[in-house]
UniProtKB/TrEMBL annotation:
The keyword Hydrolase applies. It comes from Rhodococcus opacus. GO terms for molecular function: ATP binding; ATP hydrolysis activity. Keywords: ATP-binding, Hydrolase, Nucleotide-binding, Transport. This is ABC transporter ATP-binding protein. Signal peptide: none annotated. The keyword Ribosomal protein does not apply. Residues 1-31 are annotated as: Disordered. Residues 1-19 have a biased composition (Polar residues). Its EC number is 3.6.3.25. Residues 39-267 form the ABC transporter domain. InterPro entries: AAA+_ATPase, ABC_SmlMolc_Importer, ABC_transporter-like_ATP-bd, ABC_transporter-like_CS, P-loop_NTPase.
């Protein structure tokens, strides 16, 4: 089925500096109540010892926006996400979330990791999802109600009494997502959350995440290596350059109507541009590691 679109637009950022247009601009998803907070990254630099991982990063994430972050392995995507969560202190520049400087753990943010090893194996699924509300003082009835609500949201209404070890990889990731959402974060940071899943499960979860994002109205920053995934989910796709001193290379606005039709000519066109853009950075990254393209 062909879904009518309003087209897709590539917005190269001018090489080294990100140009994220319109800080408070409305997110182009009609009929959706936005609850998400904005994130501003200004002239950010992060180092580990003498190694400068990212440098001069500027990015504005709009309230309720879904931003996907792509770039070569090792360029600093997870590092940037961790800095937004407040897990890593920048060497230079700053990050603000809803206007407050991120300094220590970001109270607006919830993080979903690639691996669902973060689940508490000794707790039931319900207890895992209710963990955050319990820590915030919710009584037992509210914990059960909240867990049931979010398990239903991720398509696991009957799994509450199971233990994580009894679940498939896809189910475990759904539980992880429900556990993060149960804290009602206004910023959800996702680091390759579907990276370890098979292609079919991945596609199902992408569609579900799109639905959940529209329903909750939160802001999402989502790291992936999968261009298709980014074009399914993102309002904007941000491409990082090869490290060291990785920067934001380009930003693509994706206006195609949701749910996205991957076969639409505009989406195919953007896929090809993104593929070439990222491939150039992957080659640069390998070259920086002493590996030439003809050796690949
Ligand atoms: N805690 C740390 N201490 C020292 N170096 C680190 C640390 N965390 C990450 N790095 C280095 O920082 C660089 C960026 O790592 P990061 O994990 O952010 O990359 P990435 O873009 O997420 O890669 P991938 O796509 O493979 O997940 C890498 O060179 C990595 O070795
Ligand atoms: Mg990573």
């Amino acid at each position: 089925m062909t879904v009518p679109t309003r087209g897709t637009t590539a917005v190269p950022s001018g090489g080294t500096t990100a140009v994220a247009s319109g800080g408070q601009a409305a997110v182009p998803t009609s009929g959706r109540t936005v609850t998400g907070v904005p994130v501003e990254v200004r002239d950010l630099g992060i180092s580990f010892g003498a190694a400068e991982i990212v440098s001069g990063i500027d990015l504005e994430v709009r309230p309720g926006e879904f931003v996907c972050l792509l770039g070569p392995s090792g360029c600093g995507k997870s590092t940037l996400l961790s800095a937004m969560a407040g897990f890593i202190e920048p060497r230079a520049g700053e990050i603000t979330c809803n206007g407050d400087e991120v300094n220590g753990s970001n109270p607006h943010a919830g993080m979903v990791f690639q691996s669902s090893e973060a689940l508490f194996e000794w707790m039931t699924v319900t207890q895992n999802v209710a963990y955050g509300p319990r820590m915030h003082g919710a009584n037992k009835a509210d914990q059960a109600r909240i867990a049931a609500e979010y398990l239903a949201m991720v398509g696991l209404p009957h799994a509450g009494k199971k233990f994580p070890a009894q679940l498939s990889g896809g189910m475990r990731q759904r539980v992880q997502i429900a556990r993060v959402l149960a804290n009602q974060p206004s910023l959800v940071l996702m680091d390759e959350p579907f990276g370890a899943l098979d292609a079919q499960t991945r596609q199902v979860l992408q569609v579900e995440l799109d639905r959940i994002w529209r329903h909750t109205g939160c802001t999402v920053v989502f790291v992936t290596h999968d261009i298709d995934e980014a074009l399914t989910l993102a309002d904007r796709v941000v491409v990082m350059s090869a490290g060291p001193k990785a920067r934001i290379k380009s930003i693509y606005e994706v206006h195609a109507q949701r749910p996205r039709d991957r076969a639409h000519p505009d989406v195919i066109d953007m896929y090809e541009k993104l593929r070439d853009d990222i491939r150039a950075e992957v080659v640069a990254s390998l070259r920086n590691q002493g590996i030439e393209e003809d050796q690949l």
